[in-house]
Amino acid sequence: MAKVVLADTRDDSPTKGEINEFVIGWQRQRMVIIPPDVYHGFTTAGSEPAYIINVPTEVYNDAEPDEYRLPFDDASIGYDWSVKNG
User: Fold this and answer.
1) Rounded to an integer, what distance in angstroms lies between the CA atom of residue 48 and that of residue 20?
2) 35 alpha-carbon distance from chain centroid
3) Which H helix or E strand runs over 79?
4) Could you give the dihedral angle defined by the CA atoms of residues 74, 14, 41 and 70, in that order, rounded to the nearest 10 degrees?
5) pLDDT of 85 higher than 70
6) Sign of the alpha-carbon torsion through 70, 73, 78, 82
């Protein structure tokens, strides 16, 4: 299983400031479509390996990157990545 988290920080978005959390895997298979400019990350949620298939819509352009990264524990997102049982 894997925990996939999306954080919307887009200024013009009606869902700005919202965080979505999905727990997915072989027991709960899902396709998660991530909108442009929404921060996202994932981690395993269990003792078994987790597999994520990433299908980007554009080829990465090293000269003009369209990908922006933050540390996983960045305070501007404020997400707690610890695993919670129950």
Assistant:
1) 23
2) 11
3) none
4) -30
5) no
6) positive
Write the secondary structure of 30-62 as one string of H (helix), E (strand) and C (coil): CCCCCCCCCEEEEEECCCCCCCCCCCCCCCCCC
Alpha-carbon dihedral angle through residues 40, 43, 46, 50, given to the nearest 10 degrees: 90
Tokens of 28: 């709960």
- Per residue in 27-71, pLDDT (tens digit) is 889 999 999 899 999 998 888 888 899 888 888 888 988 888 899
Residue pointed to by tokens 């009606």? 14
Q: What is the mean pLDDT of residues 14-39?
A: 92
| Torsion of the alpha carbons at 62, 34, 19 and 23, rounded to the nearest 10 | -110
Q: How far apart, in whole angstroms, are the C-alpha atoms of residue 65 and residue 57?
A: 14
Helix (H, G, I), strand (E, B) or coil at 27: coil
Q: What is the pLDDT of residue 24?
A: 92
